[in-house]
Amino acid sequence: MGVGAGSIPQEHRGGHKRKLVKVNYQPLADINITALVDVTLVLLIIFMVAAPMLKNSVDVAVPQASTAESTSDEGITVTIKKDGSILIDQTKVDDSSFDMAFEQTYGSSKEPVFLQADAEVPYQKVLHVIDVLRQVGVTDLGLIADPMQSRTGRRQ
User: Fold this and answer.
1) pTM for the complete prediction?
2) In angstroms, what CA-CA distances link 151 with 47, 61, 128?
3) Is 64 helix (H, G, I), strand (E, B) or coil?
4) Which of 60, 84, 85, 88 is nearest to 144 (CA)?
5) Which of 119, 111, 120, 115 is nearest to 140 (CA)?
6) CA–CA distance from 127 to each of 73, 117, 124 (Å)?
7) What number of CA atoms fall less than 13 Å from residue 109's CA on the CB side?
8) pLDDT in tens, 9-20
9) DSSP label at 3?
10) What SS3 class is residue 105?
11) Which residues pair with 149 in a beta bridge?
């Protein structure tokens, strides 16, 4: 007999006999949704951060005030842009027809009205718009301003 694996006794070849175990692999019926949940949560966070920025989509540099505070989202916003154009809830209207356009929008709703004017708009223009709003019957008028930065750079 030759010297081969067949001639070495079982106990000297590694010890135990190997058993073949038949494994019955079946496809998984469940879908792994961990990655889907992760992506969904990331998108949710992105939209939660981006949503407040979408409210002021009109490019207006409003003045700052140390007592500025957050207002509710309900109401009509009148915007006076740097070039003097007037917008009612982001819809541009002519200066000459502002009073009629606002009266149609406002009607008898008695909603609060928020005036947002660029810091470089002449004071006379802002006063004219306030006069028109008062003539139409607006009693609840608020001015939109950004909170002032303190000397340390933090908002007050």
Assistant:
1) 0.51
2) 32, 20, 34
3) strand
4) 60
5) 111
6) 24, 11, 5
7) 12
8) 555 555 567 777
9) S
10) helix
11) 155
